């Protein structure tokens, strides 16, 4: 069975919206196994935890590794995230051996899945996930725009 990426992105968008409650940038992530079962999910918690590495993707990958059954290797999984991963998160998905990275909105300022850098497809690395961008991008971008408008008092 192919994972239901649209439904997973819908859940990631819900998680992203919740991050605003504790003052974090609205980004959500879901990790699916090969059958589409949700292994883990998370929202950004940098502000909540006071941790610069507490991006939604990293938190979801860590949690997925605890339940996947192959230690830290997340072979056969799909990472679904509302915003194109940054270099840290793209690198984490490569190192975790994620099969597929699916994201919503492009991030021209910090994206590392093709916009600014392309860490996930760098031939010098030992693993290259398949990448699909633009899934429900408008919804993700709208959440981010509204958040930053509020942050800037506009």
UniProtKB/TrEMBL annotation:
Keyword Coiled coil: no
Active site per UniProt: 57 (proton donor)
Binding site residues for Zn(2+): 55, 86, 89
InterPro entries assigned to the protein according to its UniProt record, in alphabetical order: CMP_dCMP_dom, Cytidine_deaminase-like, tRNA_aden_deaminase
Gene that produces this protein: tadA
Keywords tagged on the record: Hydrolase, Metal-binding, tRNA processing, Zinc
Species annotation: Geodermatophilus ruber
GO process annotations (BP): tRNA wobble adenosine to inosine editing
Reaction it catalyzes: adenosine(34) in tRNA + H2O + H(+) = inosine(34) in tRNA + NH4(+)
Role played: Catalyzes the deamination of adenosine to inosine at the wobble position 34 of tRNA(Arg2).
Enzyme Commission no: 3.5.4.33
Cofactors: Zn(2+)
Protein's UniProt name: tRNA-specific adenosine deaminase
GO molecular function: tRNA-specific adenosine-34 deaminase activity; zinc ion binding
Subunit structure: Homodimer.
Family assignment from sequence similarity: Belongs to the cytidine and deoxycytidylate deaminase family.
